[in-house]
């Protein structure tokens, strides 16, 4: 009887289908998608805590998009990231290292449904050029494609940051503007080279400029998606997407 019971149980176990692997969304990029709380970012850079070198937010637009699409988020984004064509001011910030980590952890595979990438702005103020950015990033997109052949790969652009050629260093109960045409130029360059990279690799470019028009860092609280340097709105990092911005970007990606 014991042997019969064992045979029956074994047969039942064989009949139970193996659990399906979770479909995933993999996020790559710089501090805009990473969006770590400021204290975590500072602690990681100073080496004064147990945080990893690349802390991230559990509520950034990659995580929000994954939740909206019913996918499991895997976040490899890292503050200060640049393309491999630039030596970052911060150590270990080469985009290729994010892809290395994803491959080592087997995060990119046949169950990867979506890949989001936002990177490029950091190249421009560190001497990078659009042509070098595109040339250096093409092999990284190819690595991602090879490892995750079923994934829909999207290069997510930056939202509207500047107000014309102005930035706002303060946006609280008062607004302090500074004329900064170089920042506006970098913003335009980043948009152009991200779109060029998408075209060169046959992936999608998610253009956020139109839907964030008028929601720049100088906009009033109820409209602002990008924080000022000193800002009393809901934000983790100064001069980055705020909570409203992350929510909006996730909605745009989910609808795309």
From TrEMBL:
Residues 1-22 form the signal peptide. Disulfide bonds join 54-78, 168-218. InterPro entries: SEST-like, SGNH_hydro, SGNH_hydro_sf. Gene3D superfamilies: SGNH hydrolase. This is Secreted hydrolase. Keywords: Disulfide bond, Hydrolase, Signal. Residues 28-247 form the SGNH hydrolase-type esterase domain.
